[in-house]
Amino acid sequence: MTYKNLDSSSAFKQLQAMPASNLKHVLNPARIKTYHAKAGGGLTYHYGAMPIAEEHLNVLQQLSEELSLTEKYQAVVDGQVMNTGEKRLVLHHLSRGQVGKPVSADGEDKGAFYQAQLQKIERFSSQVRSGAILGSTGKKFSTVVQIGIGGSDLGPRALYLALKGWCASKEIELIDAQFISNVDPDDAQAVLNNLDLESTLFILVSKSGTTLETLTNRDLVIQAIEASGIRGIDPAKHMVAVTSKTSPLATSSSVLESFFIDDYIGGRYSSTSAVGAVVLSLSFGFDVFNSLLDGAHEADVLALNPNIKENAALLDALLGVYLRNVLLYPTTAILPYSQALSRFPAHLQQLDMESNGKHVNRDGLSISYPTGPVIFGEPGTNGQHSFYQLLHQGTDIVPLQFIGFSESQYHKDIVVEGSTSQEKLSANLVAQIVAFALGKDDVKPNKQFTGNRPSSLLSARQLDPQALGALLAHYENKVMFQGFIWNLNSFDQEGVQLGKVLATKVLDGCKGDEVLKAFSELL
Ligand SMILES: O=P(O)(O)OC[C@H]1O[C@](O)(CO)[C@@H](O)[C@@H]1O
């Protein structure tokens, strides 16, 4: 298996020498009907509005082979040490099914370990939902509150919001979920203001068990329960923990139950582990969460296919690298035409930018080509009335990743002026793709649209648990493949450490650091 920097690849050099296709000239119905690939869970990845032709696809296929991209993925799922920075295995795929060989580490079968945790979560969540487990004053739990930050918040929160409407439409009994993440005390307070503490179960989630924000918010919540004056209420009976067995939280006796992850699943990849399983199984029931795992597993299996035209995540990764490293576009927008995906761009921001925002390769050597783009996004059509002006007419070209569904989740809609709201939503999505690609001439310069602005589309019939699981896994696998292409270690995040260390110094009185002290005096 070859590990080399992108700029030493002959296929990449070939790609750099090829002119891009101009979308204004190449976008046509036949191409739209041809340029798509299955992404699992009923999702399809459409790439007809990308500035490439068959020649580019052939060279991208060569690039994939030259850099052994699917072999590297195989090494991940077979349990090789692919997190080179921390010398760890990378096992998030195993949390939703076995894709490679059985993996053993720390003297245990890791697949069996994740399965055992899932079974424990299934039992616990069904006991809470049925009322077999009650709060300390005898009330049934009707709200869960996840306390966590980064990967212990963004993914689970995005998935919860994504499926709430679908579950309601299926008349699945919902336990409301809320989230506390920021160390800003107003975040916790705003959630606490509306809680009936007797019927609330807090889910404390921290893989490391050392994250300042999460531990602070745990203490804030415990104090709020103690200060509530509710007779007989016991904070320990209103809190469960999700952590790794080696963390300081693992031995805590002040929780009702503990669920475990391990060091082989990174925070931003942990939504399909206990980190997402506990809150989603409590809220929607374990079966819904299990369907999400099925969708993710299907996408994981598809991602092993060495043929880039049949491997949506790999192709998305390669096309993304083409845009970033050949056309040198520095950002990417994630534009879901689905309000239920309102926090999905925020999750992808962490997934992508914490994984591939790196300037040294997996061996610690400097690299001289751009790596991960800046990721941002908002649901459409809201974004159209906000930042799309720059996307259409700004001086930077921003590649766009649209996500859309032909059916709504609730199936409750009205016809106004001959069309439903869902039809209006889909019409806007299609119109945007075409407007970005083809542009429009006008005699007035300020009304001109230059066009040739690339986009892709991930679409499905409906945002259901399988489609959502596949969507999540698609992006995890895309980011992983891009990390391989850039020769990075996508699985550590040393870039977040310096700020944490300096914040601790500030709290300790900035001993010997005048610059920190000067800034501290401002707040
Ligand atoms: O689950 P933990 O250990 O509290 O970490 C929370 C988040 O903090 C980070 O380590 C970054 O500071 C993320 O990678 C992680 O998702």
From TrEMBL:
Keywords associated with the record: Cytoplasm, Gluconeogenesis, Glycolysis, Isomerase
Protein source organism: Sphaerochaeta globosa (strain ATCC BAA-1886 / DSM 22777 / Buddy) (Spirochaeta sp. (strain Buddy))
Active-site residue numbers: 354 (proton donor), 385, 500
Name listed for the protein in its UniProt record: Glucose-6-phosphate isomerase
Chain's role: Catalyzes the reversible isomerization of glucose-6-phosphate to fructose-6-phosphate.
InterPro entries per record: G6P_Isomerase (IPR001672), G6P_Isomerase_C (IPR023096), Phosphoglucose_isomerase_CS (IPR018189), SIS_dom_sf (IPR046348), SIS_PGI_1 (IPR035476), SIS_PGI_2 (IPR035482)
Subcellular location per the Swiss-Prot or TrEMBL entry: Cytoplasm
Alphabetical list of Pfam families matching this protein: PGI
Enzyme Commission code(s) on record: 5.3.1.9
Alphabetical list of PANTHER family matching this protein: GLUCOSE-6-PHOSPHATE ISOMERASE
Gene Ontology CC terms, in alphabetical order: cytosol
Gene: pgi
